[in-house]
Amino acid sequence: MSVQLKRILPLTCGALLTMASASACQREKPKYEGPYAAEVSEAIPMIERAVGLTFKTPPKVETRTKEQVREFVTKQFTDSAAARDIAGQGAAYKLLGMIPDTMNLQAFLTSLLEEQIVGYYDPHTKVLYVVDGAPKDMVGLTITHELVHALQDQYISMDSVQKIRGDNDRLSAAQSVFEGQAVYEQISIMLGGSNIAINLPGGWDRIREMIREDRGSMPILAAAPNVIQETLIFPYLSGAEFYRNYKERKPGSIIYQDMPVSTEQIIHPAAFFLTRDAPTRVTLGTLSNATKQYENDLGEFETRLFLFQQLNDQNEAVRGATGWDGDRYAVVNTPQGQGIVWLTVWDSPVEAGEFFHMAGQAVEKRYSTKPAKTSTDLVKKYSAEGRTLQVSTLEIQGRPVVIYVDIPAGANPNIIQPAQVTLKE
């Protein structure tokens, strides 16, 4: 999910303080004027050394009341484009069975964001804001993390990246770079610039565990559906692992000049560092007997979450999503009501076949149903709870694809017309 949700990391890093070296705090502090001058002055040179870039202009830091933060959060979700994305993604998640039908996604995300914020960098105003009354032990950690974002923004326009529309997967990959770098460098700085895997008790595995464990300290996050929890954690956790890999494989390189373009490239190092496996771009074209209300993509990571939601088997979900090579869904209006059509492209017929099989299993478990007698080896049809569902596998432009349809009973499931679909490498 491409919505910006912050800040889980400072809570995790607070627990790490007892394990990290404090030697970095003994360095001479350059002068800096403004709120939290000591913390900012201490952090800036360490961040510049860690990242290998210098601030082109001094970062601006201001304080905000909790009321001002609430206003900022609300604005993030009421902006017309953002509101449309949240409504569209929320409808898709409901139709795919990933969030409850009764959930007001915009209101929930607003509450969730308010729960987490200690401070934030706003790429629109170019200012790092710290919340009044924030716990003192969290402020320094948050400032370091957000200053990394301020530095990033001086070398790549984060505001422009965050305004990507209709490509959830690419935006998730970019967010993974931004958050992953900030996580990795923040922890590295806490350890005095030393190797995290060697000098942190438990190493990288312990960091992964702590990021997940800290969900319990945030009740709203802990109550969130799995897709929201996991898409929130993904940029921090998988992003940090990707960035660690990048630093090891390409020392001295500037990652903003070499950005990953999919969650597949974040999850599978070979897809980025070796094969440069960019996703196939899917255009659904003209639909039959339905009008598009919203369209976007899920990417490999959220395809995995879709399978896990119904199958409740991590290994099967990972296996079923591996081989993903592109997708596009559309929330549609039919004469009978709202539905969803979703086309996925696969690296091989075998991997398409695995997803076809597991997507059918997901339908059967979600709706407690069985395939209709008219189903074939290539098309599985279902009727349940006033819905018509169809999962089919076929070739388009020589590529193996799977089409998933969930629409009101009585509507024609053949909404996507293969001849209208365009696949572009």
Summarize the structure.
With 425 residues, this protein is an alpha+beta fold.
What would you note in describing this structure?
The protein is an alpha+beta fold. The protein has two domains: 9-273, no CATH class; 281-424, no CATH class. Helices cover 48% and strands 17% of the residues. The protein has 17 helices and eleven strands. It has helices spanning 9-16, 37-51, 66-78, 80-95, 105-116, 136-153, 158-162, 168-190, 196-199, 203-213, 219-222, 226-249, 263-267, 269-273, 299-311, 314-321, 349-367; strands at residues 60-64, 119-122, 127-131, 281-283, 291-296, 324-334, 337-346, 379-384, 387-396, 399-408, 422-424. The protein has a six-stranded antiparallel β-sheet with strand order 5-6-7-10-9-8, covered by helices on one side. Helix 1 (9-16) crosses helix 10 (203-213), helix 2 packs across helix 8 (168-190) and helix 8 (168-190) crosses helix 12 (226-249). It is globular. The two termini are 23 Å apart.
Features:
425 residues; six-stranded antiparallel beta sheet; three-stranded mixed beta sheet
Total DSSP E strands? 11
List the uncertain runs: 4-29
Mean pLDDT: 88
Strand content: 15-25%
Walk across the major sheet and give the strand order: 5-6-7-10-9-8
| Count of runs of 4 or more consecutive helical residues | 17
The level of helicity is 40-55%
Overall, the morphology is globular
Report the sheet with the most strands, covering strand number, pairing sense and barrel closure.
Answer: 6 strands, antiparallel
Number of domains: 2
Our Rg estimate from Cα atoms comes to: 23 Å
Order of helices and strands: HHEHHHEEHHHHHHHHHEEHHEEHEEEE
Gap from first CA to last CA:
23 Å
Structural class: alpha+beta
